[in-house]
Every structure is written in C-alpha cells, then in structure tokens.
Amino acid sequence: MTDPPTRNYGCWDRWGDDHLNPGMQQTDPMCWGAWQHDPNAMWNWNGLYREGVAGQHEQVIPDGQLCSGGRTQSPRYDYLDTPGPWVAKGVPHQFTLTLTDGAQHGADYLRIYISKPGFDPTTEALGWDDVDLLKVTGTYPSQGTYQTDVDLTGRNGRAVLYTVWQASHLDQSYYLCSDINIGGGDTTPTPTPTPTPTPTPTPGVGECSAVVTVVNSWSGGYQADVRVTAGSSAVNGWRVTVGGATITQAWNGTLSNGNTITNANWNGSLAPGASTAAGFLGSGSASGLTPTCTVL
Fold it and tell me: What is the mean pLDDT of residues 31-47?
C-alpha cells in the first residue's frame, strides 16, 4: 500500500535514501525501532504476505499480530505490531486508496477495515475486535496499481486502515497497516531533547553500571536508550533491570519480566571500561526510572 502508506512502506519512503541519518531515532522513532529490529522490514516493504490462508484471515492471523501478518517471516516484520507514535498520514473523509503491485499479481479482492472509535494505536496492538469491515472490492486484473474509494464520513482523528490484499496468481495474502489521521494533517512525533545523564561513579572490579536516557516520549509511552559500562575488569555478560519501567519492546538485548534486559549474544563481552547500548519502548510515565546493572 503506497497511499495511504503502510508502516514499513512509509519508513522506506521517508528514510530509504537516508537510513544512516541519526535523526531518524529522534524524529521517527518507530521507523528507527523497526530498522534496528530488522532492516529488511523497510527494504522488503512489499513482501509482507502469507501463503495458503484460504481466505481464513481471522482464524490464521492472531490478535495483536495483524500488522505483521501473524509474524510472517519472523522476525522480519514483527516490529510492525508494536504500538507507538507511528507517523500518520492525513486523509480527507473521502479519498482514493492506492495499492502498488510491481509484480502485477492481480487481486481477487481487497478487504478494507478501519479501527473502531477509541482504539489508540500508540498504546494498543491491533486485533480483530478492534476493526470494522468497510468494504470488499471485486477482482482486479494484473496491473501496476489497484485503487478503490474509501468513505470515512463521520470519523475524525487517528486510526489504522487495515487492508488484506488477496493476490490472484496463487493463494497469497498481503496484510497492510496504514496509520491515518482522518480530517487532519500528517502527525509526527515531537522530538524530546536528550537530557544529560546523571554521572555514575566508576564501577569496581566485576561490576557494571547502566544509565537510562529518554530520547523520545508521547502520550502513554516513551523510548529510551540504555548505556551499559564495564568496571575495571572485563564483563562477559550483563543484565539491566529498570526500576519503574514497563517495557513493551527491547532491542540489542533480550526482554524478560517486563523491565529487565539481558545482553544479546554479540554485545555481552565488554573490555574494562568499555560500553555498549541497548534500547526499549516503555508504556506509561518515563519519570523515576532507576537502572541496576548486574554482571552475569
């Protein structure tokens, strides 16, 4: 889906030619998180499909995993299910949806849903009970684009447009989440100035320290970096528990217990005084976070 753009197509469209720009982390944190999770979610934006569903979309795709097609090709598209401040495209109450099909597979149909009033994509992962069916189109011949009119009269504000494209060339179903702002303009996260971390005393032998820095926040959530530093001796594994945090997604580490991040298999070994970084998305308030680092 190119208009309104899907989550991963929007990331590719905005950052494909500028993906090394550090500003992505501040100005577009959900795209940055998707990039950290698996860059191919962006590069292969048109590959989010499942085969052999036989039209049983609601039975095959679990609640909370609609935007990733039920974690198809996991972990490539998993992050697209993550709630947060995805950039939302401003649309009028009546507009034309455009799906771009470079391979010209054709379409048996497009099933188009809209999230129900009150659903908040910044704090909730999309489930079937969260959407209403707007329309089901007829077939489309094999061509480069498929278009259909969408009428959202009576709706205003942020929503998720969810489209299932059933390709014609074989039993192949594409699952497409587009964040929209009905009757308004494009919405983008407000960058949060990076605060100066409180200096941490130099850890002793066999110890590590951790500093949490909030890099972005929004209503109901935030994004933070975790900087782990070894003490005066080498560290071969670390674990950081962030007191006061409810972590919904982590990268460069493994999440457990809702507030604990353990090193990944490639960043656990640190030379004396060396450091590494992880990151996470949290729900609720970002105030009063207290990280504790433990050597494993």
Answer: 88
